[in-house]
Amino acid sequence: xxxTDPEAIARAHRRARAVGLRTEGLTIREIAEALxxxxxxxxxxxxxxxxxxxxxxxxxxxxxxxxxxxALQRAVWEAALSGDLQAVDRALKVIALRCRxxxxxxxxxxxxxxxxxxxxxxxxxxxDAIQTPPAPRYGDEDFLxxxxxxxxxxxxxxxxxDYTDGEV
Length: 168
Known about the structure:
Elements: H1 6-23, H2 28-35, H3 39-51, H4 55-81, H5 85-102, H6 119-131, E1 143-144, E2 162-163
Antiparallel strand pairs: 1-2
Helix pairs in contact: 1-2, 1-3, 2-3, 4-5
Pfam family, one: HTH_23
InterPro entries: WH-like_DNA-bd_sf
Region (Disordered): 131-168
């Protein structure tokens, strides 16, 4: 089925409408209700539509969002400056959203814990563990004795020492 398939055309129209509703400020849930689709479908429609938007249109949408944030900030600014703590909170949230939208936030440093890890030693230990033969199984079967570094124990003639019934 190609792009001229009636279902594909309907999806394209629904996606365009979803973008329009989002531009108007509706939430994903409200878009889903308006389009009579699930929240997941509304999200997927927006995601697909926005991935296909040319970069110039994304810049235009970013400017529209920045203008909205400017209007919201103007609406609470005077109250925030006069000490209204709720208005201060709202103004700070608008500023944080603007910074995020413009990519102004510095990357967060994440502490990964102990950084004294000797990666070379860890790799050597892993390789040694992989190359070490499995421990002998005790029971009815014969087994070999191993040196502390995991090599089979040999007698003076180089023969493997095989313990059977506890005798050499």
